[in-house]
What does this fold into?
Amino acid sequence: MEKIVATAEKPWLVSTSQLKEWDKCKKQFHYKSVLKTQWLTTQKNFELGKAVHKLMDYQARNLPLEPILTEVRQDIQETYLALEANSLAQAKVVANEWSFNIPFSIEVKSEPQPVIWLTGRVDRLVETVVNTPVKQPFYWVVDWKTGTAVPADFKQAWQTRLYLYAIWEARHQLGMPATMSFDQLGFVYVEVKPKRKQAVRLYEVIYSEAQHRQTKADLANVLTAMLAEQRFDLPATCPDSYCPFGTICGIAPAETEQLNLLALPEKPVRKRKKAKKEANQPEVAITLPPQEAVADAGVGTSPFDWF
It folds into this structure.
């Protein structure tokens, strides 16, 4: 049975996804994070989220968005505008689309000791001001939620805990005050659903020293268990009805409504009739962004290639 590699030549990069997989199903963790098994997925479900995250990235960098907004789908435009109107989107940006690699140490009996890095990408880190009781900065780790649901127990979710831990450990590199305390840092999921009466909802967690110590201890215990695992047993029942490995992992078919993307029947392709072009019909002009804004990157076939 293959095991995790965590050497100086090939460090172990630990992400939120791996921690969630381990908690949910060790067999799924083995396929995805140990064997690195790839499976076909459809990208259509991620189009909205990827587009809105890209627009929020451009907004943080003060790039002109009007030319893009006129070209994107209506649901993308509505979702972005709802987020952009929120006060967190207008707050001072400390870091944007920030990728982190934080070293993490655990002690094992055998030598050499494992080389581990905690990895992830923060949508945005912003600075606000609070008066409790004196005026001082407060920092929010922001995660835009446009499609996937906010975790039910979001305060204890691995993303919340790992990202807060990483930001605190990297606070000096990020230029945050040397005298700041744990309670000047928080994590917030910003959930947006434009059609809902309350389009934007916030799910907030304020950090503490006790949480930091507990996260460090829990990470050490979980990572030690991952390294020691050799069996990667199946759970009693399948916890993920959409797991792509349901047909090969050995779990009883009756225990899962597994969605096998490879087995999905192909949709019949309907031929569209070409519309007759009316006489003297003007050509549709697409407004491109100012040339100086795209001189370095060039203009692509998608609005998101303009910057």
Summary: The longest strand covers residues 116-131.
